[in-house]
């Protein structure tokens, strides 16, 4: 399946007094990877919401392997698990400059109709862009 990577430096404010990334920041890193994965395909959260579909996280799993520290250049690799239906699932690997795996993760998000607040199928234009990329 299609994958994307995004790299950035750990900021001081994301760390504890020992200079280690606070564990609660990793879901934000996954979100950064997911947003860039969609953007690379020409899909934006903003556009989806303007068209009446929101995409909340319904499941989040993280497996911490090694700590990231202040000023590390880390990379988030985001992979689509399978073609979406009412849900879309991503696997992630976060690693440092030495290519050491820091965190492995998984998220499942649901396509929700903003008017009814009920699950809905993946919008056709989103599914088409994903199919064209894989």
TrEMBL record:
Entry-linked InterPro entries: 4-hydroxybenzoyl-CoA_TE, HB-CoA_thioesterase_AS, HotDog_dom_sf, YbgC/YbaW
This protein's UniProt keywords: Hydrolase
Entry keyword annotation includes Ubl conjugation: no
Single GO MF annotation: fatty acyl-CoA hydrolase activity
SUPFAM superfamilies reported in the protein's UniProt record: Thioesterase/thiol ester dehydrase-isomerase
Top-level lineage group: Bacteria
Keyword Nucleotide-binding: no
PROSITE patterns on file: 4HBCOA_THIOESTERASE (PS01328)
Similarity section: Belongs to the 4-hydroxybenzoyl-CoA thioesterase family.
NCBIfam families with a match to the protein in the record: YbgC/FadM family acyl-CoA thioesterase
Protein name per its UniProtKB record: Acyl-CoA thioesterase
Organism in which the protein naturally occurs: Costertonia aggregata
Record lineage: Bacteria, Pseudomonadati, Bacteroidota, Flavobacteriia, Flavobacteriales
């Amino acid at each position: 399946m299609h994958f994307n990577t995004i790299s950035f430096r750990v900021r001081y404010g994301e760390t504890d007094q020992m200079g280690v990334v606070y564990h609660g920041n990793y879901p934000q890193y996954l979100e950064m990877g997911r947003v860039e994965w969609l953007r690379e395909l020409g899909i934006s959260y903003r556009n989806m919401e303007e068209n009446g579909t929101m995409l909340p996280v319904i499941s989040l799993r993280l497996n911490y392997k090694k700590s990231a520290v202040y000023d590390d250049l880390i990379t988030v690799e985001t992979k689509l698990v399978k073609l979406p239906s009412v849900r879309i699932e991503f696997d992630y690997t976060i690693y440092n400059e030495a290519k050491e795996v820091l965190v492995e993760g998984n998220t499942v998000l649901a396509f929700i109709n903003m008017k009814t607040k009920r699950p809905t199928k993946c919008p056709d234009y989103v599914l088409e862009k994903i199919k064209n990329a894989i």
